[in-house]
Design goal:
Length: 442
């Protein structure tokens, strides 16, 4: 009996220990998830900075990523092909990217707050001309100028956060949420607007929040202290800083941005149109307006990107950035292959996963640049990577339009699935050769 009691006691103790271990692991997992999505993780000193830049970020991406929703309307009205619309998107995003380097230089010279205010006012002014568009050529001019204005946002904002924030990785993440709010909720509002008004009125009304927030940012927004700004008074100073960035590590980072930009733009440009080809997905009723599957699922996918933004920011604080990026790129390649091979409601799940993965990149890539770029030249550093990301990456829209004009979505997603793997190879090169610069402020 004693031996039986002893055995029972041992079993009970082991069961108790196993339960304790399981409860401990469950508690840790619960705390990890809570911390992952807890906005209180942003230091109080950063909240004003992040709040204003997040609002500006939402408007910037609302401008750029609401354009795919108008493509079916423009094809019908102006009698153009998907390839021609792809070229238009390439023009817009190419100019968007081309402005990144000048905006970074201006940010280092005059302060990020000044350049961000300029972006809001300039882009808002462009949209005042939308109601007067009467041809595809006029549309191209306005869309191109919108790309120019919006292109002045990213490098100043990211350099602003990198220089001023106490927790930059988390700052990048919550700042990134602004993009997802702008490109997720914005298209839903635009869709509802299109149900009751014409596209010129709806697109032209974007001038109101841009101009309004521009005035607010100028009067009440955070100020760039310029404590870390570099000497960019002459062309020689600028060229000197550019030469300092021409290293194997930074060239590897540029490659990461190029290949990520190609599949980013190639996928999103025609994603609403792809979803509309899936007849099994229903339309939704939004405030009395019928919202097609391509519109509501596109918006939902982009909203899901908020989860990716937060996860990427916290993962970047906890783990080595390069390793996290490798996992994200590998998973993204698989998701793209699945989008090309599946149909029906299965696309919803895969699309949401793809959206989360796509926007996990933003804080991780920004942290990668901040890690390997001296504080004083981060405006130029971010300018360079965004120039190639949206400049060369803009070719993804033309590539997608060309493939769709001669083939299928299956081939498109199959081709695009290669680019995350090439970006992963570039991350490996950065990981093997890179180390933070001595002048990097910790």
């Amino acid at each position: 009996m004693a031996s039986v009691s002893g055995i029972e006691g041992t079993i009970n103790n082991r069961t108790l220990n196993n339960n304790c271990v399981a409860n401990t692991r469950l508690t840790r997992l619960r705390h990890t998830i809570r911390d992952l999505f807890d906005a209180r993780g942003v230091p109080a000193a950063d909240q004003r900075l992040i709040g204003y830049t997040t609002g500006a970020h939402a408007l910037d991406h609302l401008v750029i990523l609401s354009i795919p929703l108008f493509i079916p309307i423009w094809i019908a009205e102006f009698q153009v092909t998907t390839y021609e619309l792809g070229l238009l998107v390439t023009l817009m995003t190419g100019l968007y990217g081309a402005m990144a380097l000048p905006s970074g230089i201006l940010s280092d010279r005059f302060g990020a707050d000044t350049v961000i205010t300029g972006f809001l006012l300039l882009t808002g002014g462009v949209f005042l001309a939308v109601p007067f568009i009467d041809s595809f050529a006029a549309l191209a001019v306005v869309v191109a100028l919108a790309g120019v204005g919006a292109g002045f946002y990213h490098p100043p904002a990211l350099a602003f956060i990198s220089r001023e924030a106490e927790a930059p990785s988390k700052g990048f993440a919550y700042h990134g949420i602004g993009a997802n709010l702008g490109i997720g909720i914005g298209p839903l509002l635009i869709t509802a607007g299109l149900a009751v008004s014409d596209w010129r009125t709806v697109l032209g009304l974007l001038a109101v929040p841009l101009l309004g927030f521009g005035v607010l940012f100028a009067l009440r927004g955070p100020s760039d202290s310029n404590d870390h700004t570099a000497s960019t008074h002459s062309l020689g100073d600028v060229l000197s800083q550019l030469r300092a960035l021409v290293t194997p590590v930074f060239l590897g980072i540029i490659a990461v941005y190029v290949f990520a930009g190609i599949y980013y733009r190639g996928t999103l440009t025609f994603l609403p149109q792809f979803i509309d080809t899936l007849s099994s997905l229903p339309s939704l009723d939004l405030a009395g307006a019928s919202v097609g599957a391509g519109q509501w699922l596109y918006s939902l996918i982009l909203l899901t990107g908020s989860v990716g933004q937060i996860a990427g920011g916290h993962l970047g604080e906890r783990f080595e950035i390069e390793r996290v990026l490798l996992g994200v790129f590998a998973a993204t390649s698989l998701a793209l292959l699945a989008l090309g091979g599946l149909s029906g409601t299965a696309v919803i799940g895969v699309g949401l996963v793809f959206g989360a993965l796509l926007f996990t990149l933003a804080p991780l890539q920004s942290s990668l640049v901040a890690k390997h770029t001296p504080d004083a030249g981060q405006g130029i550093g971010f300018g360079l990577v965004f120039t190639v990301n949206f400049g060369i990456g803009a070719l993804g829209a033309s590539l997608a339009g060309w493939l769709l004009s001669s083939s299928s979505y299956s081939l498109l997603f199959g081709v695009l699935a290669v680019f995350p793997l090439v970006a992963a190879a570039a991350v490996l090169s950065v990981s093997k050769t890179g180390r933070p610069p001595e002048s990097h402020a910790q």
